[in-house]
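Allow me, if you will, to draw on your knowledge of protein folds for a short while. I have a record of one protein: its chain in single-letter code and its fold written as discrete structure tokens. The full record is reproduced below for your convenience:
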Amino acid sequence: MEHNILVIGGNGLVGKTIIRILKSRNPHLSVFVGGRKGKNSGSDLKIDVTHPETFHIIKENKIDLIILSVNDKEDHVLRFAIENKIDYLDITKPTPDLVRAYTIAKNRAVQSRIVFSSGWMGGIVNGLAKTLADKDADIQEVKLFVYYSVKDLAGESSAHFMAENVAKPFIRYQNNLQVPIKHFLDSENFNFSFGIGIREAYNFDVPDLYILNQIENVPNVSVKMTYNSKFITWLLGAFQKIRLFNILSLKERRMIFGSSGKGDQSVFEILVKSNNEVRKLSLQSTKGQAELTALSAVLHTEELLMNSHENKVYFSHQLHQPSILLDKLKAYETINIQSVS
């Protein structure tokens, strides 16, 4: 069976990477590139998420699945996909936008697969966390530690999110209570794997906080992040303590968070507490976060295309058997995974 896949934002860093990996693994697929500068010729489609009148080209090309890798603040693409019964996979949304989009989708009569994959690195953390707990065990706590390198290739969206939200409180969960916190406060020493060593890690907002507590019913969830530069990590913490981010303009904050290097590793570590024991999984992407995010999106796409999933709203980890997802990640040449009980 032929499938027509559209990657909106396909000219961006992550979008291009999705297309490269998807085509290399599935050469039979027809993959279209959607962007504001498209020409509506061949596989290059002119689509602007802020102008829904450009979406007619999606129906004209009989698209089966939309992969959204650009920020759609007003959820125009989501609404279009639901109304036209087109499968949809979104990897772009920060927590507040994800909650709003999920509410929209849950309140509609959905007749396609609507998949939210905006958790850390393409929404794989929640699935991997389940591999660290016994099948029947309740998970009491999940802690995610993120190592972020300023030398890594990075797109604009993550930098813009940090610039827009660094001075705003967000929520972590403690005994199912919502605890307001801010980025780059409450440091905790953590011994990262893959030769990184002990680093101070600070509060960091990712959608997994919401997903793990509100969808997976984990009562205690926290996320902390460190930069590859200890000085930068300390400096951002100092800026937050003196409330400097509150007085800087959005443009100035974007300058702080907008750096992108030529490539470096990306690492995250998951600690899961169940039955009063703690297990850890460490994942390294040697080609960085864009490669891992794109790979995750491709794995979700392949799962939608190859296996039967009923028409409804999903978070991407709900598509997979956790152990199979783990094996697929391990099989990818630039991914290294270590597990410790």
Observations:
- The chain has two domains: 4-121+290-319, 122-287.
- The mean pLDDT is 92.
